[in-house]
Structures are given as C-alpha cells and as structure tokens.
Amino acid sequence: MTSTETTQSPNGAGDNESRRAVIIRTVALKKEYLIGQVVTYALRGIDVELYRGEFICVMGPSGSGKSTFFNMVGGLDAPTSGRVFIDEVDVAQLSAVELAFLRCRKIGYIFQTYNLVQYMTCLENVTVPMAFAGVSGDRAQQRGMELLELVGLAERWFHKPIEMSGGQQQRTAIARSMANQPSVLLCDEPTGNLDLKTGSEIHDCLMKLNKQRGVTIICATHDHRLINMADRIMWIRDGQIERLADRSEVTVETGTIEGEENA
Amino acid sequence: MQMKVIDVDKQVRLSLTKTLQLVLSGVRFRLFRAAITVVIVALAVAFLMTMLSDSIITRNVAAAIDIETAPRRLLGFWVNQLTSTMTVQKLTEDLTALPPDSNRWKELKGWGQIEDNDAMGRLVDVAQREQMYAAFFDNLKEGDRRALVGRAVGLDIFDVLVDDEAFQTFQKELPSVGQLFPGEGIDAFRDFLTAWASARPAMDAIIAGHSTAAGQARKTLLKGRPADVFFADEADESLPGKLATFGFILPNDDVVVLHRRATLRRDAERIAGTFAAPLLKQSVAKRAGLEKANEATVDTFFKQTSSRRGVKWFLAELDNIRRRFDELPEDADKRQDLTQEQKLILASRDPLTIFAAFEISPERITEVTQERLRDKHLQNVEKRITVTPEGTGLGGFSSRTLALIAVSFLVCIVGIANAMLMSVTERFREIATMKCLGATDGFIMVNFILESCMQGVAGGVIGAIVGMLLGCGRSVVMYGWMAMAQTPFSELAATALISFVLGLFIAAMAAVYPAWVAARLAPMEAMRIE
C-alpha cells in the first residue's frame, strides 16, 4: 500500500517485539481554534507514541480536546503546529487527495452514530470503501461477505440499515471500517448509543479484530468494560495528556453495573 | 528520521458507471426531493417550449395564410384596378414599395407617359420621402400641427409649405413642438418640397392615365357588369391581351387563379341568394337549432350546407319549398288578402326560381360552401395573428417575452440551487462519512452535479413534452385546423431538443455551488452528534 518500507524508528521502544513498533506518533501537537476574536486552545502540545497492535482507550471529559486529538490522529484535520505521523507518514504534509488515500486504506472509522448510508444494503455499505480503493465488483462482494461473516452478519447482507438493530448497524460499520485492511481503527464512542448487552457484542468484535488481525484500535469511550479490555488507557484534560497508564496499573470496576443490568 | 511517502497515483478514480449507480440509488432514496427539482426544471422548460412551439406554429400559419389568401388579394386588386380611381395618397404608397421594372412599374410608367426609367426612379424617390414626412405630420398632436402648418392635413401640408411665408412660420415653430424631425434636417425638407411640387404633375398624369384606361376597359370589357363577374366569365388566354390594350399588365399565370376565385365568389353569392327566401331561412334556423329565424345569418346557412349531407338536405329543402309554390293562387302577386303563410311562400318564390336557373350542381354547391367556410376561417385566423404581434428579437420573440423566459430560468436556477443546498445540509453526515471512507472532493462534487443532471434530464424531457403539447394545444385553439396542417414537426423536434439541453444545462449550473459546498465539508463532521 505504501511505496516504501522503512526501518523501525529507534525511539519506538521496540525491543525485539514487533508489536512495540510505533504506528502513530505525535510531536508537540497543538491545535488552536479562532472563534470570532477568541483563540481557543484545544490541544496544548501532545507527545505520544501508539504502538502497532495496541488497544488503547482515550478518556476525557467533554471539551478536553479528546475529539480534536481524534481528528488529528485520524487525518481528518490539520494541526496548528506539531506533527502527526501515521505509519511514519507526516499527515500535515499531505495534499487533499493524499489524505483521502490515507483515510481510505490506513484508517478505519467507527462512529457513535454508525453513519451507515441509509439507502444502501448492509453489503453495499461495506463495499463502499473498496470502491474508493479500486477493488471491483466480484472481489469486493466476496471480501465484503467475508467481513460480514467476521462480524456475524453474513445472513443479513441484503438488509438496509433501517431494518437492523443498533448493534447490527454498528457491527456493519465495523465490517465497513475493515474494508481495506487498515492498520488503525479509530472508534469514537462505539458503544455510546447502545445498551450494555449489545455493547458487549461490539466489544467482542473489536477484541477479535485486535487479537486475531492485530489491528491497532484507538477508542474514545466511557464504557468501563471496554476500558477493561484495553492495553493502555490515556486520559486527556485541557488539551494535554493527564495520564497514560497500562491496564494493569488501573483499577476498573465493571461488576456492579453489569450485575444490575443482568438482574 | 525517515518518512514514508504516499503514492497518490494509486488512489483510483471511481468509474462513471459506479458513480452513476451510487447517485441513482441515492436519488431513488430521496425521490420526493428529487421530484421537486424535476418539477422546477420541467416548469421552466415547459414555459420556454410553450412559447417556442407557439411562435413556430404561428409563424408557419401566418406564412400559410399568406399563400392561402393570395387569390383573394389578387382578385381584390384587379377589381380595384378596373373600377376605382387612384388617389395621390395611394399612388405614393404604391410607388414607395415599387421594385424597378416590375409590372406595376411598367403600368404606371405607361399611364403617366413617362419616358425613361430615371424619371420613374425620381418619382419613387420623392414618394419615399413623402411617406417619411407624412408619417411625421400624422403623428403630431392636432394642436402642434395647427401651429406648424395651419389647417392643412395630409398631402395639403406640402402644398401649403411651398409658400415661403408658411415655411418660415413652420421653421420658427418647429423647435417648440419638441418632436424629432425626420430626414437630414430642414434644408433636406425644403429640397423635398421643391421636388414634390415638380413631381406632382407627373403623378397627376399617372392618375389621369389610369382613370382613362380603367374607364375604357370598363366600357369595352365589363360592359356595365361588376369586375368580378367579368373575371368569372373570362378565363381564356386572350384576357391579358385585352387588358394590355388599356395599359394593364396581367401575367398569364394569374388568369386561371383570378377566374377560379371569381367563379367561386359568384357562385357563393348565387347560393347565398337563396337565403333571401324566408321559408329557407326558417328551415336553416331550425336545422341550426336557433329559436328565431332572424338569428340565422348567411354564415349559419353556409355552415349548415357545407357537408355532403348538408347539401343533400339543402336541395331536398329547396324541392319542398318549391312544391308549396303550387299552393299559391295564380294572381298571388296582386292579391292583398294573402295569409301570413302564403306571403312567406310568395316571398320565397323569386329567389329560389332565380337560383334554379343557375343550375349549380350539388358537387359544386359542396365545393363552394366548403371553400367559403375555409375563407371565413382564414379571415378569423388572420385577425388573431395580427392581434398577437411578436417582436423581431431572438427567436422572433418580443423583448418582453424574452425577459419573461430569462426570469423563469433564473427562478429555476435559484430553486434548484436551494433544493440542492438543503439536500447538502441534510446529508452532511453522509458526505462526511464518505470522505472518511476515502472519497475525494472531486467525487463528492461530481456526485452532486450528476444528481442534478439526472433530475435535469427528467425535468427536461417532461417539460419539453408538456410544453410542446401546451403550445400546440394553444395554437389549435387559436388557429383550428390551420395549426394542425402547418405543424413543422422537424422544427418542433429541434426546438424540443434545444429546450431539453437548456434545462439540463441549467440543472447542472445550479448544482455547481451546492456541490462545491458539499465538497468542502470537513470529514470530521461525521463525528458530530446531533
């Protein structure tokens, strides 16, 4: 997909394990918005390295800059200063078409509101990104069906989004995000609109992708069970990283909520 | 640090068919909004098409009427030639539009005994200038004209102004009138007055020459009959020769046309003569469903007898009435004690007897009545065409109509742009998601323009068809069978194509701005939660 392979970055803390290879790196990432006469600092300098194959959860209250960080990392917006490297590609340097290319093949997006195209069937939705990547008819259909099988929706390929439950729609969205085998999945509150039970379907799905396919998952969430599955957890507050910790260093309680729900 | 480079060439462009498929499925999903745009385009295109097809048909009908009525005009001209006296007014009008060496030119030259063409040309020149100045004086207000030339009107004005004193008054008063004086100034006008004065004798000579010639022709050829009867009788080759002896030039080709037209007119008059019989009038009114016999006119009569069945009825009715003549007493003419019915029978006897003497065949009656109805129709259509004059602008439209069409298209553009902008606002999440999935700005733009084009195609086709039907329908109402007979289908088809393309073009144009707005939408909008 990319034209050249590079040697591993030395500051990737790589050791001998390939999963320690850096996939996303930000350097002094800053973003300012000018609203009227007032300058708002959304990000005040973020330096972080995210590793290949990692499952990282990003937490933070609203207005913390979490969404801005997401947009930067997803190649959706350009930083005011600083750099974002996605798979060693400097996003700030890319033209509009190059950005489209990057979004098409390197990153998969999962939205809180699923964002499926309403007038397309399940399978058509999944194959849209393939069309943008130049994968044609039969091959796209075949791959789309494989992906739907992966998320457990193969029998419902002909359904329109309106005919499916929220969990099914989100699973379709997950299949779609995987259409061009991206190395990173960006999930913005993937279970935010779902109840706990259907939420766990999504958790399973994401975990499966992370563990079986080695996809890096960056997930903004407040869902404790999802946080519970993460490798690392990152807190953002006031445009800065407040804390970045391994799962083992954090205590997450999920039992009570689940217990209530199950009762 | 080393960086990877993205090879953009690998980013594919979506094929047109794939894009079309995507757009089509989108349009199908939002059928109602698409229908609005389609209707807007269809309205504008239909309006244009109605105007265009109506104007095309009108122009064709006008041309056809010109040809159809040529025999009538020809006969009118010759009746006039032989029976009426020329006036200076008419002569100058005639001269103004006279091509050199035409038949009319030769006739006038002969009657005026003008030697060479140059002298004739000078006369034409003076006549043209006279028309120009006469128009100026005609358009003046009564008071203004009085101030300039006193009580004189028409051609007298020029005779008055030849006088120096009168001319000076005229010159003094002219600026106060405030009207633009035609021609090249006051000196040119003075030149004209001199030329006019010297041309008058020649004109009078022409008029006198014509008058004498017409008088002699009447005496020798018409022998006291009306001119149209003369043409109805005489259809032989010798007619142009006979007329030539009096200086009239009748082309050979016109003889047959004149004869045909004149016979038609004569026979129509003979048939219409039967209508003077009160009994026939009564039955015609009855057949036409009228309550009173007086309501029936000659036109009602011809309408009732124009078909084959009508003629049969007419002839049978004549027989019926004639049979009743026997009921009359022998000396009915002189008796005073006739009953009302007997009086009616008596009044009907003479017209019908006269008609019977003409021995007009039933076929001829049919022919004449039909021709007469046709004439009536032509006259009606002619009147309608003259009351709807169109300008000489683009496509034969008046500037007013053109402005209307332009406004309708502007409204159309604004309407489509608005509908598309609403569509963009509604679909911001879809658009942003597409961009997240790898759609380029170009794809989004093409997507929207294609969508609008599709609606433009639908609207254009519907509009062109509806507009053509409306335009043709209007013409049929206005011109009757003339419109049907003179429909130029290829021209209409070409016009429909033009209207359709224009509609499509406008739909595409109107979508450019909304498409641009859509293409600029940031992909991060997809993350937004309502």
Automatic annotation (TrEMBL), chain A:
InterPro entries, A to Z: AAA+_ATPase, ABC_transporter-like_ATP-bd, ABC_transpr_LolD-like, Ig-like_dom, MacB-like_ATP-bd, P-loop_NTPase
Annotated Gene3D superfamilies: P-loop containing nucleotide triphosphate hydrolases
CDD domains membership: ABC_MJ0796_LolCDE_FtsE (cd03255)
GO CC terms of this entry: membrane protein complex; plasma membrane
Record-linked SMART domains: AAA
GO terms, molecular function: ATP binding; ATP hydrolysis activity; transmembrane transporter activity
Swiss-Prot/TrEMBL keywords: ATP-binding, Nucleotide-binding, Transport
Signal peptide location: none
Keyword presence, Plastid: no
Domain annotation Ig-like: ranges: 182-263
Pfam name, any one: ABC_tran
Chain ranges of the ABC transporter domain: 24-263
Name by which UniProt lists this protein: ABC transporter domain-containing protein
From TrEMBL, chain B:
GO (cellular component) term, any one: plasma membrane
InterPro entries, alphabetized: ABC3_permease_C (IPR003838), Macrolide_Exporter_MacB (IPR050250)
Domain ABC3 transporter permease C-terminal, first and last residues per copy: 404-522
Main localization, broad class: membrane
Transmembrane portions of the chain: 31-52, 402-425, 457-481, 493-519
Name of the protein described by the UniProt record: ABC3 transporter permease C-terminal domain-containing protein
Family indicated by similarity: Belongs to the ABC-4 integral membrane protein family.
Keywords assigned by UniProt, alphabetized: Cell membrane, Membrane, Transmembrane, Transmembrane helix
Membrane topology value: Multi-pass membrane protein
GO molecular function per UniProt: transmembrane transporter activity
Localization of this protein: Cell membrane
